[in-house]
Amino acid sequence: MPPLPVLIDCDTGVDDALALLLAARSPSLDILGVTCVAGNIGLVAVVSNTLTVLDAAQRPEIPVAPGYDRPLLAGFANSEFENASHVHGEDGLGLPDWPRSSRPPDPRHAIDLIAEILAVAPEPVTLIALAPLTNLAGFVQRHPALLPCIARIVSMGGSAFSGGNMTAAAEFNIGCDPEAAAVVYNSGVPITLYGLDVFRQVTLTPAEVDLLEGAGQPWSPLLGGLLRYVQRRFGQAKPGLGDAGTVAATILPETLTIHPHRVDIELAGTHTRGMTVVDRRVASKDAHHAAPPNADVAYAIDARRAARLFVETLVE
């Protein structure tokens, strides 16, 4: 089976780095480009981190383009939740002494890179969104004629059941730019919502961490450093893979249990702004009140299979 053509949009912090390593080394994916947006850390650091991870993965040929450094309607600086450096470290990777890439990014803006790749792609491309949806919203608004060139957006963002992690209601990626998320969810493009409900399920065992760190591959030292940081930062002997689970689910979609639902983004409310409102009435006696589905919502993932894929890909 030929590799799946993908574009990755990220705000490279620790788990984005894990996701990029898996995607870059997977023979199941053909990465056509990576776009960067402010989120976990500021845009300049996101770009630097992304180039550094791809260098470690020995994939310097993949174009990396910077995108938006703030949300569609309001700057990160105007928000209490400016970034997630308290989670990912001031450098975004929890590895401030790790040497960063000296390569320059692609000179194109993220939106232009996406447009140029989609315009010549011989088949529809899957977009893996691991960050606030600002770049994708900008693309939707500027290039509506190219939307049929997108096979699906697999978006790590939101929550169907678990509440939020940025606020009680809002997950971080959606909460950083709710207006952008609303644009994307109303675009008509097929979407898989990979939310906190499954995000937290995929973990590694201590033995798997040891195996990955000691695998002797060019990317093993960086991978080991990232995983050890997660163990220290969260006190987890079994570190979560976070965004890397989204990539695993893209490679093995059968690992997900999904149901179609209408998903709307709450744009107001002191306590609810940024909430993904998932209408679960589709299969109930109240289904006639429900709007048509616009997303496939992940309820569960085969977490062990996703973790094994991660290990097998990065050990070999």
Task: Summarize it.
The chain is of the alpha/beta class and 316 residues long. It has helices at 14-25, 43-56, 85-88, 110-120, 134-142, 172-176, 178-185, 196-199, 206-213, 220-234, 243-251, 303-315, and strands spanning 4-10, 29-36, 64-66, 125-129, 150-156, 191-194, 256-265, 276-279, 295-301.
Protein architecture, described:
- With 316 residues, this protein is an alpha/beta fold.
- It has helices at 14-25, 43-56, 85-88, 110-120, 134-142, 172-176, 178-185, 196-199, 206-213, 220-234, 243-251, 303-315; strands at residues 4-10, 29-36, 64-66, 125-129, 150-156, 191-194, 256-265, 276-279, 295-301.
- The protein has a nine-stranded mixed sheet with strand order 3-2-1-4-5-6-9-7-8, with helices on both faces.
- Helix 5 (134-142) packs across helix 7.
- It is globular.
- The model is unreliable at 76-81 (pLDDT under 50).
Which helices and strands, and how do they pair?
Elements: E1 4-10, H1 14-25, E2 29-36, H2 43-56, E3 64-66, H3 85-88, H4 110-120, E4 125-129, H5 134-142, E5 150-156, H6 172-176, H7 178-185, E6 191-194, H8 196-199, H9 206-213, H10 220-234, H11 243-251, E7 256-265, E8 276-279, E9 295-301, H12 303-315
Helix pairs in contact: 1-2, 1-10, 1-11, 4-5, 5-7, 9-10, 11-12
Q: Characteristics of this structure?
A:
316 residues; alpha/beta; Inosine-uridine Nucleoside N-ribohydrolase, Chain A; nine-stranded mixed beta sheet; 9 strands; globular
